[in-house]
Amino acid sequence: MIFTYNKEYVGDVLMIIAADNQGAKLAAERKGRVARVYREDNGQTVAWNIFEQSDLFEIAERGQVFLTDEQVVILNQELSKEGFPADLVNDSQPKFVVGEIVDMVAHPDSDHLNICQVQVAADKTVQIVAGAPNAKVGLKTIVALPGAMMPKGNLIFPGELRGEKSFGMMCSPRELQLPNAPQKRGIIELADSELVGTAFDPAKHWQG
Length: 208
Hints:
Protein name: Phenylalanyl-tRNA synthetase subunit beta
EC number: 6.1.1.20
Strand content: 25-35%
CATH architecture of the largest domain: Beta Barrel
Domain TRNA-binding: 90-201
Order of helices and strands: EEEEEEHEEEEEEEH
GO molecular function: phenylalanine-tRNA ligase activity; tRNA binding
Number of strands: 13
CATH superfamily of the largest domain: Nucleic acid-binding proteins
Shape: globular
CATH class of the largest domain: Mainly Beta
Structural class: mainly beta
Helix content: under 10%
Keywords: Aminoacyl-tRNA synthetase, Ligase, RNA-binding, tRNA-binding
Strand order of the largest sheet: 3-4-5-2-1-6
């Protein structure tokens, strides 16, 4: 679940992305300050818009924001008050973390993609399909996990690339909009000493 807010450019609206719409046609229903956006084909809720957000609580950040459990309780109370199911679940885990490629094989249906097994925590490895020319086993890099919002606003969801499942994205300095990022393809390369699962910190992980 992704929370995003930009009062200056969008207005006083908290946008909550709950699922990937997968290109399906969408519809919306509004009750009071709450609007539910859903797929027409199956009724799945893909997003919520909370209008006049600052009447509920202030949000100082812009772009992707991370709420406290108490703030999510307030949002669920608002949904319930308007007759919607109160099913927002807070996820405070970092979405950009240090990962290490522990296995890599060529994609069977591509001449430039690789299927990588990437360790993103001490007890978690995910599959990521990537085309970075510098990807190799043992490389540590920054991984955007499902639920991440990239600096340009695109969202990371589980998906497939040419028939192979992918659960995140290994990031280049340019994609992370780091200062003086090389304008070429290639994921960020971190020191071997970096600890897998550590939350991304631009000041620590980039000296561009």
